[in-house]
Amino acid sequence: MAAVHQTQTASMASLSKSETSSKPASRAGTVFALAALVRLVLFELPGLADLLASRVEISTPITSFKRLSEGVFLFRNGVPPYSGGVVHQAPLLLGLFYPIISIPVLVRLLYIASDLAIGSMLSRMAELKASQMSRKQQHEKENTTGSMAEMEGSTWSGLTVASLYLFNPFTVASCVGQSTILFSNVAVVASLWMGMKGNKSIAMFGVALAAYLSLYPIMLAIPVALLLTQHIDGESKKRAIQLSVGFLATWTVALLGLSWVLVGSWDFMSSVYGTILSVRDLTPNLGLLWYFFIEMFDHFRPFFLVVFQLHLFIFAAPVSIKLRHHPLFVAYLLTAIIGTLKAYTSVGDASLYLGLLPLYSEVFKYMRYSFLIGNLFLYSSCLAPIFWYLWVYLGSGNANFYYAVGLVYGIGEIILMVDSTYALLRRDFDLQNPPTKPEDWSREVLQK
Amino acid sequence: MYRRADAVRAELSNIGLKAATQNYTLTTSVDTKSGVNTYAVFNAPRADGTEALVLSAPWISKDNQLNTNGIALILSLAKNFRRHSHYARDTIFVITDGDSEGIQAWLRAYHGIERTAQDNHEESLHVRSGAIQAALNLDFAGTGDYNAIGIFFEGVNGGLPNLDLINTVNEIGVHRGWTVVLHDKIIPATDNLTRKYLNALHNMLYMMKYQASCHPSANHGFFHKYMIDAITLYGVNQAEGSYYRFSVHQIGPLVEQVHRSLNNILEHLHQSFFFYLLSDITRYTSIGLYMPPVIILGVSFILKALSMWGVSGDLATDMKAVEQLAERESKEAAGSGGGEAAAAVAASNNNNNNTNNSGSSATAFASLPFSRRPRPMRVAVSVIGLSLVAGLASFQLFTSTFGFAGETLLVKLVASVGVCTVMVFAGVSSAMIRQQLLLKQREGKDKGKEKKAKEAAASSLSSSSSSSSSSSSTLPPPPAPAPDWVLLKTFILAMAALEVTTLSALNFSLAVSIGVLIAVPYLMFQPTHNHVLRILQLGTLMAMSPPGLVLWASYLLEMDVSAILHWILQGYEVMGTWLLPTICFVYWPLNLASIVMILLPVS
């Protein structure tokens, strides 16, 4: 995929620069309308939405729409929703669906609108990033010889980025399967967008909301803070960080307090975050942990639980330090790490980081394993339903089969992360050390 | 039909079992089938009825005779079971109507997923028992004697029962002095090694034929869908050869003992003997042995795809040109060192270019093309997409009824071939048009380049130390994008690998057949300038396409084309086999894409 657009982008970019001002609005309208139409049609196909909603790759215990409906039903009938072991979604989500859950059309429209919102925010982020980059290049051109600026390949347009998100099969399946991970994704993308625009309060609200919905995005506070402070230095930077942390704490407390007001007890804390952290529900999924904890003796459980959860969080530090000049890439990498290593992973998580990756389309030409990664994703998405069928319906396979697919998927995700990080670092290296001597041209560069 | 079902029901009731009948109607796009099943439950005296075994017999045997002995066996076994008290699992006796619709209707109703539409309905069951653990289907045609017991075990879509079930029957049969064989052919024992090997090969291919066709070899095959191990015991009646003959009275004890063995096991058969190939009743090839060949087949596609992907992007770096450029520049540097004044003039002339020498090489670097040539994937992606759409369209054509006069399967085949031809035409022509446009663009560019080069040459003639603008004109031209067919072939091979390997997990034999069929052509074929070769390749691909294969089959099996189509469609609509979907969604699109690939321009 990476190399596809190499030629096209150049021409497209020039096209969009010259004659865009009138056309893109209508073109964007077409793309978004088409995306909405595809989802509407898929929602209407008999049985498809139910089928997708029941797939373990799409609905996990913490994002399943069925469990959410159960929670809303219990809530509506005055039964404390979190006292049983079924509902693991945040109270405000129950509150959001409380008025509309009995009207399927509204629920579907909400899902479609959220997906389109992510698409539109991604496209704006791409445009914002492009303009920031060209400003930076202008700046560098004035100061230095200018070779760096010319080396810069043009990036993909916002619309391309948006349509790559909107027509990603993972995104569509996750949306039609009504996985509630979508709302967490909206919050994440909104916080990144606002971070780019420098709006501390809303950006931190996005982080707080995403963390409130699915806990792990709390790590994204770091890249968002980096985004907010990337153009300021010294004392004001310190102040900005303090302010952001303050906002984050305030918003988190506010959201939790509001939840308490809504359900009237703190039960939800253990039911929502306890389940995420202690991996109590071992329904199989594409993740890497369920099988471990099924096989494990009970007295090892706490130790490995701590190790696995720490393992996930620990990446925040090295990634943010090494790539601090690319806060958006840090955000992409952290969402990918969350999507790979969290206990209840689903294709909805993949749709988020696969949506963020095209923002860095300039690194694609440095990627070495794009074909392999594409194949790994393809194989795991084909094999997962087949092995599930062999295991659960025919009984001739077993849990190992399905877990093997999870491993293949995990390998695909990890190679993607490693390769894209390599590509970014390699590009940085070439930018900082442009090959000036003829010997340099023979070094393993993709760009002669 | 109703009378015979009712008579058997009355007989089973007389024995003292809870017996009932079940009506069903099944409508397909071709015709409507209806019938009556009879069934009875024997409640085991020692159990709570949570688990059950099934003994079933169809009215019509595999070889289209009445299954007289089979049904007689059911009745006499029912009578026999009543007299004993050692049974720990209920036994359900089922006598099914029709070809395969009866057993399916009964299984559906038993598992509570009966349909209630007017034209597609199964009556709910009145008598039930617990979860079915295993099933034996009895197929003993006629009233005569038999030479041997044959075991049929292949289920729908290549599903297999647990191997222990087959082993149990064999152990008991051999113990009682019976000949137990696979399928319906007695192969005389021999000491000749080659002969032995060929016999084993024959058995294995026979089994793989059933698996690859996705059709079950007998009625037991539908139990596998519900996670029930089941086989068919078949009375082999081979006229030639002087084999010992057994009467139906001797079969009774054998079935009773197999049934008792199943009754005695503590839990559902679950050891990992679900993936095997049988070359003999006592020999099996396990998954560990038979998977490597198909994996190697898949890997051959993957490796070729990877290498083609590499080829599509890599352009042998023209190091010579780079070196020449470097030399030239160093000379220039020396020259400008000698005549500084001239260099200064040149520099001032080219104000907008970079002034110093390091700057000029940096510019050269910046404007140098990628060592990767671009991979325009539009054609490849759209051809693959179009061919999938064409596959989907033909599937819809086959499975829906339009109701116009003269609507036959043959017409539908022709129509879908038409759809596919249109798709191929669209793919090829759009690729051609794109190619022409690209060529024109490049020509235009080249002309511009030549002009520039001429000017540069003129300027270098006029002044000995040329400006840096001439160095940019000595650059190699930007690499031509990879030809469309390379990328298309990469995609086809990647998809072939994906399909063969994933299919092999579901239905090994089908995957192997497809893999072996497509391996050589898909790996070797590519567009050439040689017209004869191109037509030859095209012909081979057409012969390999589903319509071609149907024609081949009708020629080799001396069957009517529409009969073959009917067989495939009935398999899909009645039995739920995946042969038709596999052909339409997996096999055909690849074939179409390959045909397009052959027709694309070479470069």
UniProtKB/TrEMBL annotation, chain A:
It comes from the Eukaryota. It is found in: Endoplasmic reticulum membrane. The chain crosses the membrane at residues 25-42, 90-111, 170-196, 202-228, 240-262, 303-323, 329-357, 369-389, 401-425. One of its GO terms (cellular component) is GPI-anchor transamidase complex. Pathway: Glycolipid biosynthesis; glycosylphosphatidylinositol-anchor biosynthesis. Belongs to the PIGU family. This is Uncharacterized protein. It comes from Actinomortierella ambigua.
From TrEMBL, chain B:
GO terms for cellular component: GPI-anchor transamidase complex. Residues 456-474 have a biased composition (Low complexity). Keywords: Membrane, Transmembrane, Transmembrane helix. Residues 443-477 are annotated as: Disordered. The keyword Protein biosynthesis does not apply. GO terms for biological process: attachment of GPI anchor to protein. It comes from Actinomortierella ambigua. This is Glycosyl phosphatidyl inositol protein transamidase complex subunit. The chain crosses the membrane at residues 289-311, 379-398, 410-433, 505-523, 535-557, 578-600. InterPro entries: Gaa1. It comes from the Eukaryota. The gene is GAA1. Residues 443-455 have a biased composition (Basic and acidic residues). The keyword Transmembrane applies.
